[in-house]
Amino acid sequence: MEAQLSRPLMALRLIFLLCFFSALARCCRFLAAEAAPTLVTRLPGLDGALPFRLETGHVFLVRHVRSWTHCKQLHFVHGRYVIVDEEKGSELFYYFIESEGDPRRDPVVLWLTGGDRCSVLRALLFEIGPLKIIGEPYNGTIPRLRYHPYSWTKVASILFVDSPVGAGFSFSRNPTGYHVGEVSSSLQLKKFLTKWSTEHPYYIANHFYIGGDSAGGKIVPFLAQKISEDIEARVRPLINLKGYLVGNPGTGESIDFESRVPFLHGMGIISDQLYETIMEHCHGEVYTNPKTALCAQASDRFDRLYDEIYRPHILFKKCVYASSGTNDGSIERKILKEEAGVLKHPPPRLPMDCHNYGTYLSYFWANNNITRDALGIKKGSKDEWVRCHEGDLPYSFDIKSTIKYHRNMTLKGYPALVYSGDHDSAVPFLGTQSWVRSLNFPIVDEWRAWHLDGQSAGFTITYTNNLTFATVKGGGHTAPEFQPERCLAMFRRWVCREPL
């Protein structure tokens, strides 16, 4: 009788051991288990099925196990194992939109957005993605979406990533996981790409590009260099890196901001007299710490005049830049509370005729529980979505200058496109043009207009080492948001190795 009873018990023990060693083997590869990506076929606010393939998901950023001690710290809970030695539990959220052309041959682009921990959803919905929020009065229902005909997914698959940790729907289980900076978040992105590429091997052979705008332009060349070093060291999976592009990019250099003075002077926003005073007495200190009374007075006058315009595009109506922050919006707070719980960062209310009214609507769309379910957002991972975290999470600006990375990558022969909306006063094209010239590469195609439909769409110059600089006529910060058709034409030609 005891023997008969022991057989099922031994079988159960054997099954347990097999499960244990299977889990243990998985532990020795990674310190976390990942959920399968979500294939999104419908999104709230859009009539009908998506006319493109959208995949979303979280990717863990964990270290490899270094010893048996780490592997053996494994507990079973309800038939699953929970890692107790997980370092920080940081996860990056991504949206992968497959090319609407030929996804097996078209390039894959990793896209990073700028700002202080800003969500990449802004780039997807307002810049280069295939969806747009319809700008109409908010009535308490989920904002509507429409298809965007000038999406860059017409010619490439795009991997939009919420980076660094804390941006958008990316999160960390351990609060210390939010303590990152430009260098550490770039290295996390490199880990992300390794894991994502391993799980999507059918895209490995596609040409791969890294792109970003504004502050994201600081990460792009640094990350590109790190990937190129892995390629040279034959680290697998081998990313098929073919170049990078940056729009209205920050560099970390003072030229990014000092160029505002000649730009605003040329645009008739500051006077000859103020311009001359700043040039004579400030010596590049107008944005730092003026050392003379004359410079301090000139800086104050400059700031007052600068505050009169909409900085992302000097021709548009000046509006509050829709982002997280405190305001009195009791109606909006009530609606958001009903839709998605209490928000700590309700968006400032904007007039409908503001260019960035759609950004205001994006809070209601992204924080709706139906949207979160459709995107596959993990329950309890983020209590709210905000466009940007402006200073409420730690972040180190430790890439002091990106110019050396631009030089290194172009000298290696990687094609680079640097472009600027010519009406952006936040990072004016004059400063970008200046540091591009400072690389001292010989010119192979002189400054000229580039055209769309028989009209100039901007101006461009090409240097040796496959470096192209271009302006986008009528573009702001960022250019695709204001001139989507021109920017798609520019991107299509560049990625197809055609002259602008």
From TrEMBL:
One BP term from GO: proteolysis
PROSITE patterns: CARBOXYPEPT_SER_HIS (PS00560)
Top-rank lineage group of the source organism: Eukaryota
SUPFAM superfamilies named in the record: alpha/beta-Hydrolases
Keyword Iron-sulfur attributed: no
GO MF annotations, alphabetized: acyltransferase activity, transferring groups other than amino-acyl groups; serine-type carboxypeptidase activity
Signal peptide region: 1-25
Signal keyword on record: yes
Key words, A-Z: Glycoprotein, Signal, Zymogen
Similarity section: Belongs to the peptidase S10 family.
The protein, known as: Serine carboxypeptidase-like 19
Organism per entry: Aegilops tauschii subsp. strangulata
